[in-house]
Amino acid sequence: MTEGHRITIERSGRHVRVVxxxxxxxxxxxxxxxxxxxxxxxxxxxADDVRLDxxxxxxxxxxxxxxxxxxxxxxxxxxxxxxxxxxxxPDVKEIKDHLCFxxxxxx
Length: 107
Fold this sequence. Notes:
This protein has strands spanning about 5-10, 15-20, 25-30, 30-35, 40-45, 55-65, 70-75, 80-85, 100, 105. By secondary structure, the protein is mostly beta strands. It has one domain (about 5-105): Domain of unknown function (DUF427) (Metal Binding Protein, Guanine Nucleotide Exchange Factor, Chain A, Beta Complex), CATH 2.170.150. This is DUF427 domain-containing protein.
């Protein structure tokens, strides 16, 4: 990590639910929370808890020097609303096979 930049990942211990347009896209009690310097907390949900059938691969990819290359998925009315790191960097290997959404409910 760069001086002053920090990422921590831990089990959230909370119920995480993702709803879009009245439809539940994901729901999990096994989510991870990723905290990164300068960024909002992000919840990464196991792929098994995500309705992958509702997502369309978008072809968008971005690179983070701390996490690696992200792949994105879209919803019919929300482009690139979901992302994951298929081959995350070793320091964040826990997020492999997990997806992240821009909007989540946490209880």
